[in-house]
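Hello forum,

I keep getting stuck at the same step: I have a sequence, I want structure tokens, and every attempt I make locally crashes halfway through. Rather than fight my setup again tonight, could one of you with a working pipeline run this one for me? It's a single chain of 357 residues.
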Amino acid sequence: MENKLKTNELKSYHLENMVLKKHLARYESTFQILNDSFLWLTTDCEGVFKEVGKKTYEVSQYSEQELIGKNVRDILPKESILNWNGHIEEVMQAIAEKGIWHGEVERVSKYGHKYWTYTVICPVKNEDGEIEEYLNISRVITRRKEAEQKLYTQSQYLREYSFLTSHYLRRPLASILGLVELITSQVINNESDFAEKMQFITHLKSASEDLDLTIHSMQDKIQKAEEKRNKVFSRQEVSNIMLIDDDPLNNMVTKKLIEHLDKQIAVNTFNNANQALNFLTKETNKLPDVILLDVEMPEINGWEFLHQFEQMSLGTPVHILTVSLNIKDQYQAREYPSVKNFLIKPLKINDLEKILM
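Reply #2:
Ran it on my machine without issues. Output:
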């Protein structure tokens, strides 16, 4: 009997152990997805960082030593403190009422690069129901916000165009139609005196001029919108390329390919990203049309270069050249508006032709 009880206990223990292992495996898998795909962190009730996810470090460009044990307010730029105070009040009120807060947040990296996230914040409670810490999970939505801004700008042009059509265009047109009605209904005929006819002609001429002026105004609106669109989407002629790579052999190959396609293109090579940044800062009259950038470099890598380059607002397109096949690097590259391509070395002639188009 006693042996049977022990056997049952062992079976029960074995089953519980299997269930625990299954839950643990599921937890580890979920955590891996969270750590690789989302920005996450935890803070205590005072806003002090306790844990920070790997991708959060990558996007924010802060190190573990710079975040863990520090208060959120100590990390934020001074101009953001006031906004943060108002934001945290909103968060705490939502958590108190609904147990969770979610919304869009504009953030600033260590190097001043701004990016948008969709963020969820929820409390983590202990066995007594008291809040011990807050869990913050985010995903980057910078590209979506930029697309929304473009759509908003386009809709503004459409609203202005619609207003011109419905108000300024219809008014002189209605006047002309009214005067035409007078003619067709013979209210003004051969028996009308000269002064009345001249008054009619004057009104018709004035309404026609108003209509012409409105049409020209509408054409100007369309032209300005088209110029702005062309400025965004047009490809400029490439005559000067900046190549940033610490690999001399790769630089030689890339320069030969460029020379093969167009010998007139000047290639300025930098083995160090710091040197390239100094050049861009000082030689403002010699700015490149295109930048080819390696990611893995000593001292300052490609990501750190991009953080500082974005702040210069030069508008030069950047094409990343790398040996990395890591999909996370490709996603990270998308967070920088200046990056137009993510190309795997060695650079192919077809890819280079597209860059130089």
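The two ends are 86 Å apart (CA to CA). If your local run keeps crashing, start a new thread with the error log.
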